[in-house]
Amino acid sequence: MDIKKAIWDRRSIRKFKKEKIPTSVLYNILDAGVQAPSSCNQQLFYFVLVDDPALKQKLEKEAGFKWIDRIPHPVFVVTDKRFGNEKFSNIQGASAAIENMLLYAYSLGIGSCWIAGYGDKAIVKRLLHIPSYFHILGCVGLGYPDERPIPPIKRSAREITFVNHIPFPEEATNNPEDWTYKDIQSLAARTIFAKSPDIGYYHLFPLELEQQLHFISSKLGKEVLYLEDISGIYLFKLAQMHQRISFTMVSSSKKVVAWMEEKAQHHKIKNISFVYSPDLTLPKKQFDTVLCLDQVNRLPSRQREQIIALAHRSLKKDSTLLLSFLNKRSLYGALFRKGVGRRYGPEISLTYGSLATLLNKQFTITERVGFNLLPSPKLFFKMGVPGRYTVFNPFMRYLARFNLLEGSTNSGFLARFSTTNILVAKK
Questions:
Q1: Pick from 52, 77, 289, 417: CA 20 to 30 A from residue 258's CA?
Q2: Where are the domains of the chain?
């Protein structure tokens, strides 16, 4: 196969046929990895091929590797941290090996996926007997493809190449106020391709999501508008739960709309309409309910005002807006009060007062409900444990076995300190 075709046409595959790859072919792919360049030809990387079904189950249930059960041949790539640490040369060599494997597998008609989200690193190391002085680069999923993903968004070389210097600020920021909305949406539109349509995006707190869906369901009218969705995590679950309700999703990103349409088709969901609107304007149709969920924390203040104004224009008289936000007064919100880089870009926790000020200009807030009063410590392992706190890892990992108050639903005083708040506002 032509090398350019392999590079340009290869896709990450997350849905495989059950058919196994012959052992000789599998080792040819691993040999392609061995041919990769490495600093001083040290070749400090190693492969751990998992073929034990019982071990796969443990990796899924204990370590949280969500979809390993569907991968015919998971291959963990590890590298020795004792040598070649300068300028990350050991990591560079292992990464080059992974790319070699992906391209050679594609040339053989075999699907692959470079997986960084393989679960809790410490538990994976324990289950696979990986020594502490090894670093896990990721897992390469190999198998015969059972899907044809749509081409993902790729930036052009001219867009990301600078001559002689790079024009970025000295200090990094994860506060959306310091980003343009265009840049935030561009990053989100690229990131949606990180999951295939049938896998979807996992909520950080599953019990919290379950309680939120139950509450939201009690407030839905017959015609529902969903504003600027990017993950589909709420929209698709609600549409599946309420097949007699008509949902409309509006987005300012054409790529997001195309992706959502494919996702809905894959799941055979027929009660969602998708609208691309670059300036977030809609036809004069009005709705019984407007949903703005898991969004305002990633928007600059100007766009928050725009979203709320759109919600007001789109609602019938005496109808309902449901708006959720990450609460700055919660334990989780306090940890990221200065902003955090999440999958879809920068986010920052917000106070009830700041949103109430915006909403009260056009709405009357009738209810405030809080979810997840005390998150499970597993959030630290999903978000990344700050270096100075890693000494507490054993204790936090023990607590992470329990859900604590992750599934709690709170009103009144306790809502003020819950991780996520949903505001119910009437037009």
A1: 289
A2: 3-143, 186-373+408-426
Q: What are 426's two structure tokens?
A: 């009437």
Q: Which CATH architecture has domain 3-143?
A: 3-Layer(aba) Sandwich (3.40)
Pairwise CA distance, residues 212 & 357, whole Å:
24
Nearest of 345, 260, 361, 352 to residue 300 by alpha carbon = 345
Q: Angle between the 352-359 and 301-314 helix axes, to the nearest 10 degrees?
A: 50
Is the pTM of the predicted complex or chain greater than 0.85?
A: no
Residue 378, pLDDT above cutoff 70: no
pLDDT at 185 > cutoff 60: yes
Angle at the Cα of 342 (from 339 to 348), degrees rounded to 5? 25
**CB 93 within 8 Å of CB 41:** no
Kindly state the DSSP code that residue 43 receives in the 8-state scheme.
-
- The span from the CA of 365 to the CA of 359, in Å, is 7
Predicted confidence (pLDDT) at residue 273 exceeds the cutoff of 70: yes
Instruction: State yes or no: pLDDT of 159 exceeds 70.
Output: yes
Pairing state of beta strands 272-276 and 246-251?
A: parallel
Q: What are phi and psi for residue 325, nearest 5 degrees?
A: -155, 155
CA distance 120 to 118: 7
CATH architecture, range 186-373+408-426: 3-Layer(aba) Sandwich (3.40)
Say whether 186-373+408-426 and 3-143 share the same fold.
no
| Of residues 106, 80, 108, the one with CA closest to residue 94 | 80
Helices (H), 147-234: 157-160, 181-191, 206-217
Find out whether 20 and 72 touch, Cβ atoms under 8 Å: yes
For the chain, give percent helix, strand, coil, nearest 5.
Answer: 40, 20, 40
